[in-house]
Amino acid sequence: MHENYGSDKCDCNIIHEDVVNMVRENMPKEEHLYDLAELFKVFGDTTRIKILYALFASEMCVCDIASLINMTQSAVSHQLRVLKQARLVKYRKDGKVVYYSLDDEHIKQIFDQGLMHITEN
Amino acid sequence: MHENYGSDKCDCNIIHEDVVNMVRENMPKEEHLYDLAELFKVFGDTTRIKILYALFASEMCVCDIASLINMTQSAVSHQLRVLKQARLVKYRKDGKVVYYSLDDEHIKQIFDQGLMHITEN
DNA sequence: GTAATATATGAACAATTATTCATATGTGCA
DNA sequence: TGCACATATGAATAATTGTTCATATATTAC
Prior knowledge:
The structure is a homodimer.
Chain A: H1 17-26, H2 30-43, H3 46-57, E1 60-61, H4 62-69, H5 73-85, E2 89-94, E3 97-102, H6 107-119
Helix pairs in contact in A: 4-5
Chain A binds a DNA duplex through helix 5.
């Protein structure tokens, strides 16, 4: 917690210095916040969301995923690489076919909470 | 569930039609998946993540937020608008000062799960 | 070997977006 | 009325990114 929150760039006066200091103490590390944003960037694309939801139900090969979500094989392959780099999916090879599956325990809960925000009201 | 998952664009053959059909049945509505991606897009930016984490600790005015995260007042104001449009924050006015606070129950849990993904290993 | 199929990947293009700068709005105070 | 301050906003710019297209790699079957 705390650290690395300067105030060089801000162009206005601090109004409540006590509040700012208190909040600063409770901020997670910059690095964690950066990584968190990077993770959510991965979730911030409809194609990747669809792929992940598909994999909730079953492991699938690239072709089947492309067919399911109606995208080209190339587009799917590019996005699978992003998901793999984010350690969200893993794969196994069987001949020329590559099967992708989920590699994370938290995604489902994150998505469920997200859906609750969307559908509430 | 199910609906709207065609296969016109796919340029390869379905290998496992049974799996594809089963997964298709379990897919949420396209619209929900789109909205979910939109929500995560909002989370997918370090500045907005910082703002939200700050508001976990306390309501804050724009100036204080800018000072805390070391960004210009203008940049913060722009991002607060994005967060407001996503129904993630709300505000109250007191004279010329505008205080922002969280307007959602789920964000914290989403972030906590995200951090668990990041910090595991 | 060759052909066919599944997947991966690099380059290019279009679209989106975060920040900056300048300025507008609105409030309080002298 | 005029000035100072807090915030909002429009336009411009730079950077990022998703898809497409062409092509490379790898495996199977003949």
